[in-house]
Amino acid sequence: MNDKPNLLSSGAAIVRRNKRYVIWFFVLNFAFASMGAAAFRLHAASLLDRSLYADGVLHGFDLGVFSEMLGRPEFGSIQAATVPGMIPAVLFFVLTLIFLPGVFLGYASDRRISREEFFRTCGKNVWRFVRLAILFAIFAGIVGGILGGIQNALAKAADETSYEKLPFYVKSIGLTVIFLVLTAIRIWFDLAEADVVIADRKAVRKSVGKAYRQTRANLGRLFGAYVAISVVALLVLAIGLGIWDVMVPPASVLGAFLIGQLILLLLLATRFWQRAVAVSFYSTAVAETPVENQPAPVSLTVAATPQGDGI
Amino acid sequence: MPPRKPVVLLLLATFVAVPTIAQNASPALSIPNTTLAINSPTPLSQRVVHYQIDAKYDPKTHGLDAEETLTYHNLTGQALDIFPFHLYLNAFQPTSTWLKETKRDGTRDVSFEKWDSKNYGSEDIKRFEVVGQGDLTSQLQFIQQDDANKDDRTVVQVHLPKPIPPDGYVEFKITFHDKFPKTLERTGWKRDFLLGGQWFPKVGVWWHGAWNCHQFHGSTEFFADFGVYDVKLTVPQFEIVGATGVEVGNVNNPDGSKSVSYHADDVHDFAWTASPHYKVYEDNFQGSMGPVKLNIMMQPAHLGQEERHARILKQSLDHFERWYGPYPYKTLTLVDPEVGSAAEGMEYPTFITGGTTWWMPKGLHFPELVVEHEFGHQYWYGMVATNEFEDAWMDEGINSYAEVKVMDDILGPRTSIINQWGITLGERELQRLSYISVADLDPMARNGWQYASYGSYGGITYGKTAAVLLTLEGVIGEDTMRQAMHTYFMRYRFTHPTKEDFLKTIEEVSGRDLRWYFNQAVYGTQVLDYAVLKVKSTPVDWYKKKFKEKKGETEYQSEVVIQRKGDFLFPVDIAIAFDNGDKVREHWDGQDRWIRYTYQKKAKVATVEIDPDHKIHIDRNNFNNSDLAERSEKPTRKLMNYWTFVTQFVAQLLAWWMV
Predict the structure, then answer these.
(1) Does A136 touch chain B (CB under 8 A)?
(2) Which domain holds residue A29?
(3) pTM of the predicted model, to two decimals?
(4) DSSP code per residue over B484-550
């Protein structure tokens, strides 16, 4: 009998139990994006709000009207309208980095952790997560860069042939390979993040080393779960955009808003599902490790706090 | 395809007999009266030239060796002792005028920072003989009349010892070698593909009392006299060949090559293509002068789109025949060139290139757009053979206008270019967009190489001309405009009309003096921009102490001020709608800078719209053509919603991978 838990279902259960994290992160992202879109709104409103010509982008999406809007001096430079929208994206990444340790702790706990525990864990692990992010960027950058270079060289060679579809196939296969390799690296660092938080390990390199060994030893299982979730994410995106295209009337601003936000919420949930899979795996792995080798799971021993203060 | 015997015999007759006679007795020279390639019992043009070319192409070196015999009929009314020739392929050299302009102004196709010398192109005359006057190779002289660039070798001139009298003939025998460039623009090779355009020494046009033989410029196209072409192309047997005119011979040679022969009547250029990969799809169109055989040469990766190409080709033929006049040729070859070859979207007589990709969704109508446009050139360039160097708007622009009309009719005014995933774009919008970004830079009536930039050349010659003619349609009416285009085509087909020929035809058919419009739109750079400057409704009794507004009862004094912001004078209609449903329509001659309209009604102004029928296509800013009394934020909210979605998505993607 196989006593290893199903990572997908156990991960899903963790996310379901801790829905609030997905919601909070979603709200955070939405709030930032809304603020970032204010510049765009300001620029667009000066042209659209009092013009019948704007109907072209309301009842359908007339690319001619949209292009003319972007080209008008009153709209200003496209950069001025759009760059402010990208700053919140970076901000969201930074805040994810800061608050994710709390999420890992919450996922590892079988009870609702308190707000104090959450933020204390976040504060304690900020620098560790920054280091992990830098290490990930180095590894992923090197591996992705090498693979990307190979892919480009192959695509260029394919482009010299008379088989028009060949460069596309080469690029598609190349991108898939890069995606899969980066997913493996992501698994490795997700496990390292789990180890850093749950074991309260100051030496990040030890977590990275341990996560590497765990990933290598269980790659098939973890990889299968991660890829399956990625496929779910792609399906969410494809089906969501399909529904948006087919079912939402062009002039329905509310309908487009709701379906768009639902897609983003579900996409966000799939990533949290992956993290929950990492935590679930890590917890099982720790349980299977001999007691003398186990790190002290400091955070898990924190006394329970009243339900209302939980986060 | 096996050759047809009578056709082969006829070709042999023209190929063998005519040169022999010409060599031995110049007075017996003539331009053939053949009608093999046209659905007409008599020639359609005043034939000035007869080109006979025997060429052998080597795909390994991209080189071509050829013998050209050109018979020229002097119809200029005066003796000629100077003859200029185009050597277009010499443009693909690093010091040519074409390259200098391309580097300076941009190009329609690839941009290049590095250029390997093995990819250059060249066209060398090895021997130049004038029958009866001897070998004049040493007399050839490169000339640069447009820019004095001494390194430009795209026009060569010869001075004959004995002038050719009026109505006389002269026969040139030219041996030349081509090295086709790796395609940078229109002509050359890519991988196994070759598009042979502008590949042979071609005599200039005697036009308005002088030779018209411009250098090859970065943006300009071509100009040549009508005549007859007999061309034999020898290529390896694995090549699949297509060309201008009708195929009249296809013989396998013992050395592994094959010779494919073509004959064309009443055309002014000859282009061909070869690739071992073409999949040829044949179709037919029943034209008003006779059947037209359609050869569609597809790339293997585009199989499945041949029906799509054939459909738009036949629809275009049908529209042009109904609206403008008959297509008289027996063939039309549509080449789907190698992707990325920079040979897409090009026109030659009875031979056009399209442009698609293997993944092209049905809602993206770019293949249809290119095919329709290039087909349209069979009329506006092919038959109405305007000077593309000096009057680019007359072929590209008039053709773009026709393209808008045809594409609108086939695929819908708002969806003729894109109708996919809820996104739409119409042809007339695209033309206008390309114009408004360069609206005040250049007039339409300008030599093609003298535009401020390639963007201006494109925006004005294509976009502005289309928008100007669409706006003119609003002035004289759609039916009158179509009648004028039909008259212009029928009157000037197989000739070289000028801009005034076109403009006067429109005035004649419409019965109106349109100089006020042409002077601004064609010869000027005036910009048209009308705007709603002010809309205000004030209660008449606003000063009374116990005044309170009541809908339907309160009387308002409303004023609407319309401003002419641009310097283009044009009469406009203005529609004013009130919040009780009343509508008023005004007409303003646009002579002053602004005009005020006042109304006293028990209603406030709800909306004001300039040009409510959307007849004006040259207004630089459509957003200020209307005003709403109450703001409507829905369009802005919709776009903001999209933008928010994008930024959220990017944020999540970043966070997905990085942490």
Answers:
(1) yes
(2) 7-290
(3) 0.90
(4) HHHHHHHHHTTB---HHHHHHHHHHHHTS--HHHHHHHTS----B-EEEEEEEEEETTTTSTT----
